[in-house]
Amino acid sequence: MLVDTYIDIASGKTGSKRKEFMHILEGCQAKKIEIVITKNISRFGRDTVEVLESLHKLREHGVRVIFEQEGLDTADTDSELMISIIESIGQAENESRSENIKWGYRRHAAQGTSKLYNRKCFCYQNDTEGQLVIKEDESKNVRLIFALYLKGYSIVGIKRELEKREIKTPTGKEKWNKRTIDVMLSNEKYIGVVRLLNVGEHQEHYVSENNHPAIISKEQFEAVQIEKKNRSNVVKGEDGVQRKSRKYSSKKN
User: Fold this and answer.
1) For residue 79, is it within any domain?
2) Which SS3 state, helix, strand or coil, does residue 195 take?
3) Which GO terms describe its molecular function (predicted)?
4) Could you report the per-residue pLDDT of 114-123, keeping only the tens digit for each?
5) Quick count: other Cβ atoms within 10 Å of Cβ 63?
6) In this structure, are 29 and 128 located in the same domain?
C-alpha cells in the first residue's frame, strides 16, 4: 500500500537541505515506513557517500529500499556492492572523469587490490586485516537453505521453513523475502568466488577464485544452479523467450 510520495526540489550542491528526505527518516523512526521505492540511484543522493549514508540510516530502522531503474533491492545481500559500483561510475561521468574512474576500478580489480573483493555479505565478516572470514553462527543457515533446495523445497517452502525455525533474515527480520533466498542460492561468494565489474557496461570482468573460505562446496552450488534451471518455466529458444506450460511444483512448497 502506497503511504506517501516525497519529492525534494533543491540545489544539486553538496550540503543543500533535503527536507522531504528528513520526513522519510522521521517516518522510519516512527515505524510508519517499511519500504522506500525510488526511481533510480541518482534521485537518492548526489554522490556515493550520500547514497550509502542514506541507505545505512534507513537500514538502521529496518527499512527496505528499492531502486526501480537499476533493479536493485536492499533485501538482497549484495545490493550495496552493486550500488557502490554503479553510483561511483555515474558520479564520475557527471564530473567528466568517468574514464579515469573506470580505469582505476579495472586496474585495482586486475591487480587484486580492490577492497571490493572483501566486501562482506551474509555469513561473512572482515577480520583485523580486512579479509573475509566465516561467521559460523550464520553459516549453518546458508548450508540449510542450499540443502533444503536440493531436497526439493521451493523458494516459498524454504521461506516457510526458515520462519518456522525462527531463523532471522540477513537484516535481522523474522519474515524472509523470496528474492533474498533466490539470490543467495546463486551467490558465488558462498563458494569462495568474487566477480567484479560485471555490471553490464564493462567489456571485461574479473574473477577471484578461492578469494575467501567457502561455505558451500562447488559441487553442491553447481547442483543447485542446474536444479534452478530445470525448475525455471522460462525457455530460451530460436524464437525468443518462451514459457513452459507447467511450472515447478513440490510437496514442500
Assistant:
1) yes
2) strand
3) DNA binding; DNA strand exchange activity
4) 666 667 788 8
5) 21
6) no
